[in-house]
Amino acid sequence: VQTSAVPGLVGVVGIVIGPALMLCALEFVGGNEPHGWKVAERLTPIAYVVWSLWLVATGIALLA
Amino acid sequence: MSHTTIAGLVVIAVPLAFNGAFALLAARFDYPDILRLPTSEVLARFRAGGTSLVLIWWSFALSALLMVPLVVLLSSAIDDADSTLLALATSVGVLAALVQFLGLVRWPFLVPYLARSDADPDASPARREAVDASSSPSTATSASPSASTSGTCSPARGPRSPDARSCRRAPFRASSASWES
């Protein structure tokens, strides 16, 4: 968001993805062990695909 | 070639490499669904995968390590941002990459030994129990994008779901994932 190297939107999307990934890390934490937390279970693959696409988009924005 | 160009190329290449290795593991090893199975079945499938499977796991682990240069180069490419924020983000990114690498590197190094031990016909019940137990702490921090998801051992998950006994004996199930994983 602060840099001029990539569009601000890239940073905004990253700010959304980061907490989502942290949420996914709670899938088996505390009371969620051993069966897992359904919300995180469903969110994890989506979050990681979006995160991967965000990285690629960030790279393209850096090259542009 | 400028630092920004190198950073851009690395930021594109690393997620492709990571997802490519993950896709190969899914195709060859039924990963991460295989993590639901009991230890002996996971190890048998690992043995059946041979050297090529070990190399795929090694590549997967290295792709996690590639996050370190990615984070550092990206930080350098956006150096007009707040310096404190950049330092924090770089530190967290490097630590996340190391955690991911440590979670994955057991597969090309520790698991082959466990798989061989498990297949030894002369192995005593105590040794087999040790192999089973050794799998638990070594896998407890596995970190892959879907390992946590598909590692879940829930009897209500359909025909591929393990029974209750398998659930109790599925030490390869990852219990946490974060970038990682």
Q: In words, what does this structure look like?
A:
The complex is a heterodimer of chains A (64) and B (181). Chain A has 64 residues and is mainly α. Chain A has helices at 8-24, 38-63. Chain A is built from two helices and no strands. Chain B has 181 residues and is mainly alpha-helical. In chain B, helix 2 (39-65) packs antiparallel against helix 4 (83-104), helix 3 (67-77) packs antiparallel against helix 4 (83-104) and helix 5 packs antiparallel against helix 6 (125-139). Chain B is elongated, with a radius of gyration of 19 Å. Chain B starts with a helix and ends in a 13-residue tail after the last helix. Mean pLDDT of chain B is 78; it is low at 137-171 and 174-181. The chains are: A mainly alpha (64), B mainly alpha (181). Chain A binds chain B through residues 1-6, 21-22, 24-25, 27-29, 33-36, 40-41, 44-45, 48, 51-53, 55-56, 58-63, and chain B through 4-5, 7-16, 18-19, 70, 74, 77-82, 85, 145-146, 148-149, 151-154, 167, 173-179.
Mean of residue pLDDT values of chain B: 78
User: Would you tell me the overall average pLDDT of chain A?
Assistant: 87
**Rg over C-alpha atoms of chain B, rounded to the nearest angstrom:** 19 Å
Assembly state of the chains shown? heterodimer
How many H/I helices of chain A?
Answer: 2
Largest interface: A-B, 33 and 39 residues
Using the CA coordinates, give the radius of gyration of chain A: 15 Å
Shape of chain A: elongated
Helix vs. strand class of chain A: mainly alpha
Shape annotation of chain B: elongated
Instruction: Decide which structural class fits the backbone of chain B.
Output: mainly alpha
Quote the distance from N terminus to C terminus of chain A: 17 Å
